[in-house]
Amino acid sequence: MTIFLSLALVLLALAGAPLFLVIAAAALVSFYVLGVDLSIVIIEMYRLAANPMLSALLLFAFAGYLLAESGASKRLVRLSTAVFGNMPGGLAVVSLFVCAGFTALTGASGITIVALGGILLPALLADDYSERFSLGLLTSSGSLGVLFPPSLPLIIYGLVTETSIPDLFLAGILPGLFVLFLLSAYSMYRGGHSRRNDGLSFRELAGAVREAFWEMLLPVVVLGGIFGGFLVLSEAAAITVFYVLVVEMVIHREIGFKDMPGIIMKTVVMVGGIIVILGASLAFNSFLIDQQVPNRILDVMQTHVQSKILFLIILNVFLLIVGCMLDVFSALVIVVPLIVPLASSYGVNLLHLGIIFLTNLQIGYSTPPIGMNLFIASLRFERSILDLSLAALPFLAILLLSLAVITFFPPLTLFLVR
Amino acid sequence: MSFLFAEGIRRTGRLFKHLEKWTLVGLVVFLAVFSLMQIVLRNFFSTSFVWGDTLLRHAVLWASLLGAARATVEGKHIRIDLLPRIMPGRTARYVSFVTNLFALSISILLLYASWNFVSDERLAGSIAFREVPYWWLEVVFPFSFAMMALRFGFKAVEDLVRNAKELERGLR
Fold this sequence. Notes:
The structure holds two protein chains of two kinds.
Chain A: H1 2-14, H2 19-34, H3 39-46, H4 54-69, H5 72-84, H6 90-106, H7 111-126, H8 131-141, H9 152-161, H10 165-190, H11 202-227, H12 233-251, H13 260-290, H14 293-304, H15 308-325, H16 328-345, H17 350-364, H18 372-381, H19 385-408, H20 411-414
Helix pairs in contact in A: 1-2, 2-13, 3-13, 4-9, 4-12, 4-13, 5-6, 5-11, 6-7, 6-8, 6-10, 7-8, 7-18, 8-18, 8-19, 9-10, 9-16, 9-17, 10-17, 10-19, 11-12, 13-16, 14-16, 15-17, 16-17, 17-19
Chain B: H1 2-44, H2 52-74, H3 89-124, E1 127-129, E2 132-133, H4 134-138, H5 140-171
Antiparallel strand pairs in B: 1-2
């Protein structure tokens, strides 16, 4: 009976039923079978409202959509071109850095490819990069910034595991830079032929800096506020919104009052979608914990897997599979609560676990058959998913390499935190 | 007569969507402004509204749940939808009918559960702040799930109507 029901739910999920309702259904049925009043599901969901971090999620997402709607992406491209444009493979490196920066600011929700793909693809092609290289680069860059603050997946991981979100922000910085570094090295190797050789123009650099100055200050405002100890996370989020509003509405005048309702609606629809999944998973997970499912998985694992290294390898393979089945938000809220007790029993630091998680899920974004980047890129660039998957392969290989380093070399993650 | 009825539903729907949009916009603006005000009050005047945090957290809950109800009508819920991508149009719509029917029934169950929840809270009668009891802040649960149920119901009917129309065209 349980197997039949589970199978039916999986089938419904694959058929396109909203995930939060699939999870809610699992929770409702489970509690019904236990004979518990169904209002328990709502009580568990309502625990969300006790969490002060929730407003940070909504406000950071709002700031992200504001930036996405403004011309910030163009200014970022100009600035990075001025800095990196004259290196071998410069434009490819520009694309990587801009995508990462933009994803971090807008919170890995697929906007990056939509907002930047249209600017960067023609530029890369004009600069003599092969189409395949350019498409692969842009497809796999769509989720590149998830390790940088204030990315929404980092905040959600913190919410679910109750780890300190500012610590997570710190933990993500070096691994994120490392991934960028490896990808840049590969791009410079592949793109060595295309060198513009206009020489570094200081006038262009100064112009680009002047133009993007206020957006460049944004990380300082966010991180300085949090790590300087002036602001808690939700306050930093409110300040970020205010700052972005002033920059884009008053200084650059690219967003007007008439654009506000549209931007706000996009924000609440996305955040609402994430939060109901979060709520439904809270309910279902409380059932699993009540039934001691995490403990049982733990027992099974401990009898078969003794070493931490083997555990980490299994974890990575498992997460890669999860990452190409589910989007990052659902994967986080469903899988994290089950993995956390396991990881602690093998002595894996929770911050380290979070970074491993997100690196895996980030890779899953560009992995066939259901990586979200592939779908978005396929819509944006009008290419088949198969073509894009093939183009993304070399980049996936590099991402996997960096995943291995991040997993088996914890100091990379934990160095800044201590 | 039936035409008037349908037109009535359509108008009510449009009006409601408008109302919904401005409520959400108002909520988010309130959230941003009120958060900022709390920061200013706390840091420069060493004071703040004691009930401010409770109010803020519930405003986020309202924005999220109403946002999720809106995501239903815009078809923007997070989903996997592997199967519909590889199926021909008409079969995909039958599958979509089944998933919408499933979504409708789960929304109704959630509506039932949240109705019980709010009724219990009302009986308990605990106060969130000032004269505002908790259950006032919690009615957003049954309301949002009711909206979702309605909207998934409409979508299911839509799927059927579209397929029926196509069949009719095919027969003629």
